[in-house]
Sequence to fold (309 residues):
Amino acid sequence: MKPRIVFMGTPDFAVPILEALIQNYDVVLVVSQPDKPIGRKQILTPTPIKEVALKHHIPVHQPEKIKLDYAPIEEVSPDLIITCAYGQIIPESILNIPTIGCFNVHASLLPKYRGGAPIHHALMNGEEKTGVTIMYMDKGMDTGDIIEKEEYIIKETDNVGTLHEELSKIGSRLLLKVLPSIISKTNHREKQKEEEATYAYNIKREEERIDFSKKGKDIINLIRGLNPWPTANMLVNEEEYKVLEARFTPKDHVKINQVEEITKNAIGIGCADGIIYITKLKPFGKKELLTKDYLNGMKKENILEWKIN
Fold:
């Protein structure tokens, strides 16, 4: 008999993991965050995980606070609870419910980057590699024992969107690989090294602003680490421009925070050790544009006079 599984998750990242479980095991309940209003018209929209559950006719529970409202989990008597990017801390009262245990799919190589934004921080910090960890859950934030990890070498072309997609695929594959040993209770189990722990807190609004007094490599990492969401930005004549793609060229004696050069495809802004060439942007109130398209019809002298930040 297949074990009864409760799955807890919310965003797109968790979708391949849930779909893999549905295809191979008995998912008896899905728990997700409440629906939220989306877009200019604030249309109440189900979470990506809820949409998958409904498509497969699986009951969904969406409590405002899981620690106060978890009776549906108890009622289905699960053998396992599996979480992935759920978005709330799971209390010990829930961790004690399943007969086999509670397990989490986390998008980093723990103990590095515990917390809610590991993909963003790995890119922003210029890491060469990241990966996925399958782990036991305990009452701490991503502090449980490690069962299995798989590494991913970060490409120079990766951003949050591409890395999100790659790690999501790895997570679903890795979970299916280790579940048989978890169910038979023969899996590997290793305590995390607390002295190596780092934290990936959710990105704050003020951290999205580009600081052109920093080195070019750090600025490019910020842009990659926030693309396509929540997106790095700069102030141009007191209006916010989102910056989606850029490249860096080292150069001496440039003027920080000033437009140094305009090419056919880019606007070059001086930073601490060179020029950041912005190749894709979103001006305030307008759609995303390749810089070459934005430059059509623009007066070069006006751009050269930009007041940045």
Notes: Residues 4-196 form a domain with the Rossmann fold fold (CATH 3.40.50.170).
